[in-house]
Specification:
The complex is a heterodimer of chains A (about 190) and B (about 180).
Chain A (H helix, E strand, L loop, with lengths): L1 H6 L1 H40 L8 E5 L2 E9 L5 E9 L1 H4 L1 H11 L5 H32 L15 H37 L2
Antiparallel strand pairs in A: 1-2, 2-3
Helix pairs in contact in A: 2-4, 2-5, 4-5, 4-6, 5-6
Chain B lengths: L5 H36 L1 H22 L5 E3 L2 E3 L4 E3 L7 H13 L4 H32 L4 H33 L1
Antiparallel strand pairs in B: 1-2, 2-3
Classes of the chains: A mainly alpha (about 190), B mainly alpha (about 180).
């Protein structure tokens, strides 16, 4: 695979840039649809797994997924807080992944289609995981007190785990996930059909 | 003892390939997690000073182009625009990813060292171009800043790292086969 790709860097780059430009032009149509899908799917999946706190709801707005959840203020009063838990800057890596698939040399269009579906499903699952990590971290974040909200109780291990997961998804996830999934689906296909 | 049939040999070859690829993936995952833990754990001691150097180099390059700039921590400010260089714009995590991929790939330590050095230098230089271009876009075409910052550069930068690694790995595979 690496040899084929290394020998076809120019066509790979041209195909990548063309697909990237086309998807970027279509992004304004793709983005709200994807945010809506993530909000609906996220709500169902998290509710089924009992990971969405009672009274919380997910909704898509402005190409982002927001959670509306009940919070208790430090003065003891209750309120509903709205927080962004998935934005375009997180899920735009769909475009990177699809551009990589289209640009992959020595792969038929049918196989590119199958690889795209498999990879998009994996990427969407990671976006849902990202959404959950943000949902949880923004609920237990100790700094919430500074803005007058009492954070949900969490053990020191839970706090540390979600702090690191949040950082991992925010800092590395965007670039790492599409590339890893792309190499994964293409290598798997090559192995199975070698 | 009977000779293994062609299909048995093919099956064994495929199993060997699978083991080899799983091994590379496992190593890559290990290096990625290890480098992330190191960088995130040493954010103040390592990442912030690294980012401050980028800010200073950017200021120097702007000065060469006749643009006056000030640096405060990791913020570079020109008379018309300012950028805060953060973790997603300092290339350090991308360099760590690239190095992890280089270290995980079967090669000699000498080849890996060259690969890591090539990756570090290339990504550092391209990142400086990214920061400078973002300052330029922010100064002259502010309405397109987010487009460049979030969509274009983030995506093209990671793709550049991937292509660079592919060229390095592809060259090794080619050499091994010839």
């Amino acid at each position: 695979m690496f040899k084929t790709l290394a020998a076809n860097v120019l066509p790979f780059t041209i195909w990548f840039l063309l697909t990237f430009a086309a998807l970027l032009a279509l992004w304004r149509f793709i983005s709200p649809l994807y945010a809506e899908t993530m909000a609906v799917t996220g709500e169902r999946v998290l509710r089924t797994l009992s990971l969405l706190p009672q009274g919380s709801r997910l909704a898509a707005q402005d190409n982002r997924v927001w959670v509306a959840r009940p919070v208790t203020r430090t003065d003891g009063t209750s309120a509903t807080a709205g927080l962004n838990v998935l934005d375009e800057a997180t899920y735009f890596n769909l475009v990177i992944f699809l551009s990589l698939i289209v640009a992959t040399p020595a792969l038929s269009w049918r196989r590119k289609g199958l690889a795209s579906l498999t990879g998009l499903a994996a990427l969407a699952a990671l976006h849902l995981l990202d959404l959950y990590v943000k949902l949880k971290w923004t609920a237990i974040y100790p700094g919430l007190r500074m803005s007058g909200v009492i954070p949900e109780p969490a053990s020191p291990i839970t706090l540390k785990t979600f702090e690191w997961l949040f950082a991992f998804f925010s800092v590395i996830g965007f670039g790492l996930f599409p590339v890893v999934i792309w190499i994964g689906v293409v290598s798997l296909w090559k192995l199975r059909h070698a | 003892m009977p000779e293994p049939s062609a299909s048995e040999r093919e099956g064994a070859g495929r199993a060997g390939n699978v083991r080899r690829i799983v091994g590379i993936w496992a190593l890559f995952a290990l290096y990625v997690l290890g480098s992330f833990a190191l960088l995130y754990g040493l954010d103040r001691q390592l990442v912030t000073p690294f980012t401050k150097v980028i800010a200073l180099v950017t200021k120097a390059l702007l000065g060469l182009g006749g643009v006056e700039a000030r640096v405060t921590g990791t913020v570079v400010a020109t008379p018309v625009f300012a950028v805060a260089i953060q973790n997603n714009c300092n290339a350090i995590y991308e360099i760590a990813l690239f190095t992890s991929a280089v270290l995980a790939f079967p090669a000699t330590w000498r080849e890996r060292a060259w690969g890591a050095l090539l990756g570090f230098l290339s990504l550092y230089v391209v990142n400086l171009i990214r920061v400078l271009s973002l300052i330029y876009v922010g100064s002259h075409f502010r309405q397109y800043f987010q487009l460049h910052h979030i969509y274009l550069w983030q995506s093209l930068f990671i793709t550049f790292a991937l292509v660079l690694w592919t060229l390095w790995a592809g060259r090794l595979v080619q050499n091994a086969r010839s």
